[in-house]
Each structure stands twice: as C-alpha cells, then as structure tokens.
Write a structure and sequence with these properties.
The protein is mainly alpha-helical. The protein is 74% helix and 0% strand. The chain has a single domain (5-148), classed as Tetratricopeptide repeat domain (Serine Threonine Protein Phosphatase 5, Tetratricopeptide repeat, Alpha Horseshoe). The chain has helices at residues 10-22, 26-39, 44-56, 60-75, 86-105, 108-111, 115-135, 140-148. α1 (10-22) packs antiparallel against α2 (26-39), α3 packs antiparallel against α4 and α4 (60-75) runs antiparallel to α5 (86-105). It is globular, with a radius of gyration of 16 Å.
Length: 149
C-alpha cells in the first residue's frame, strides 16, 4: 500500500491554485489551498501561498497563522515541491511573515493600543526580514525592510 496515496492529485491542485491566484481569482485559489490543507496540513507551500492570499485580502490574523505554520514546516525540512531551492523558499516564508507582522503593527488597533504590542510586532518583523535576508541574500525586499525597521 502506498503511504502517500492521500497526496495523489494534490500537486496538480496546488499548481492550479497558483494559476488562479495569478489570474486574480483569489477566492478560488484560497478554496483550493484550504482543501489541500484539509487533506494534508503538513505541507508548507500551501500554507505559504494561502498566507500570501490572506495578507493580500487584508485577513492578517489568518495570514499570520499560515505564515507561521509555513515557516515552521519549511524550517524543519518539510519542503514539498522542488521548484525553488530550500533556502529561497524559507526566505520567502520568513519575508512573508515579516510583511504580515509589519502590516499588523500598522493597524489602528495596534498603533493606538499598547505600545508594547507595537514594539513586539516590529521587533519580530525585523527579525523575520533579517532571517529571510540571511537565507537568501538576493531577497532585496527583505534586506531593505530589515534595515528600515
């Protein structure tokens, strides 16, 4: 018996979700990615792509949760597809987490709330950008943000 039989077809669904997101069908892409994660929640790349869509649509709490899970899985060697080198993919995950944290820190509830919350989010965002830059020195966006924050 094939232990990975539950993964059959998930790769095609993942790439279809990428195509849908590229074509701006974010709801369709998010639905496909969520479906993949219901079948196999230990795949980092669907978490990463879903986090990107959620961030783009302003759902920052959910985006943060998926970005954190993508970082956790990818840092533990759980890369599923081999389209990108492992450090580059990990860099993208850390960079996205940094972006989500930075955007959360810019929200009215944080800006006008407890200053310690803002400081904590910004410190963690800076660390995420620095890690992204360390993993992939060509990630100029992460380099810029790690210096700016």
């Amino acid at each position: 018996m094939n232990d990975d039989a539950h993964l059959d077809g998930l790769g095609e669904r993942f790439y279809r979700a990428i195509d849908l997101a590229r074509d701006r069908d974010l709801d369709g892409a998010a639905d496909l990615l969520s479906g993949i994660l219901k079948i196999e929640p230990r795949l980092g790349e669907p978490h990463l792509e879903l986090a990107r869509i959620l961030a783009e649509t302003g759902q920052l709490d959910e985006a943060e949760a998926h970005a954190r899970e993508a970082v956790r899985i990818l840092e533990s060697g759980g890369q599923w597809v081999d389209d990108l080198p492992e450090p580059v993919l990990q860099s993208l995950a850390h960079g996205l987490l940094g972006e989500v944290l930075r955007r959360r820190a810019d929200s009215d509830e944080v800006v006008f709330g407890d200053p310690k919350s803002w400081e904590s989010l910004m410190k963690e965002a800076k660390a995420a950008f620095a890690r992204a830059s360390e993993l992939d020195p060509t990630n100029t966006g992460a380099q810029a943000w790690s210096r700016e924050l």
